[in-house]
C-alpha cells in the first residue's frame, strides 16, 4: 500500500515502527525487530515484551515518552500543513506573492526535522564540536561550488541519530537564518518521499505536477543562491 501510494503520487503516509526489545517468558520474542519495522521509516524500541509493551508504568516511562513524542510530532506536522493551506501567501508592496514565480521567499528559514529535541541528551561534546568544525562553522563563506560534508557512522544504537539531532537543534538556535532539512535516505523510495514532502512544505513551484521529477525539482531549488541558506 505504501509503495502504491508513492507510485500514484498520493503522498507519503507517516509511519513510526515500535518493536519489542524483551522476550516473552517461555516464548521468546513474538515479533522480532526485522518483522516489526518497515525499511526507511523510524524504528523505536520499547524496552518490554510483546504483552507489556503498551502498558506504561507512568508518564515518565521511556516507552510512553517515545510514543507521545511521535504523536506530538504528527500533530505539529498536521497543524503546520493546515495553517499553510488556510493562510494566503504574503504579498509585497508590488502585490506579488511572497513565494514569487521561482518559489523563493524572504521569510524565515525553514526547519523540517521529524523529531523533537531530546532534553536528556548529554555528553558527546567532542563529537559535536568536531561535527561543527567539519561543517565549516566559524569559517567565512568562500562562495565556492563545494559544500562541507560530514558522516556519522557506527553500529546501530550507539546514538548517531541523537548526535545529528543535537547538532540540528543547535544550528537552529545559533543560526536561525539557516534552513535545516532532514531527509531519510535509507532507500530510494524513502528518499523520493522525503524530497516530495520537502517540495510540498516549501511550496516549490511544480511540486503538485504528477509528471515532475521531484528529485531534480528540489535539487535545482536548493541550488539557487537567492533561496536562502
Count of separate DSSP helical elements? 7
Q: Uncertain regions: pLDDT < 50 for 5+ in a row?
A: 90-101
* Biggest sheet architecture: 2 strands, parallel
Summing up helix and strand content along with how strands pair, one would put the structural category as mainly alpha
Which strand-content bin applies to the residues? Answer: 5-15%
Structural summary, described in words:
With 229 residues, this protein is mainly alpha-helical. The chain has a domain at 12-89. The chain contains seven helices and four strands, in the order H-E-H-E-H-E-H-H-E-H-H. Helix 2 (33-36) links the parallel strand 1 (16-20) and strand 2. Helix 6 crosses helix 7. The model is unreliable at 90-101 (pLDDT under 50).
Keywords:
229 residues, mainly alpha, two-stranded parallel ribbon, 4 strands, 37% helix, globular
Quick description:
With 229 residues, the chain is mainly alpha-helical. It is 37% helix and 6% strand.
Any chance you could write out the topology, listing elements then pairs?
Blueprint: H1 2-7, E1 16-20, H2 33-36, E2 42-46, H3 62-86, E3 111-112, H4 125-134, H5 160-174, E4 180-181, H6 188-201, H7 214-223
Parallel strand pairs: 1-2, 3-4
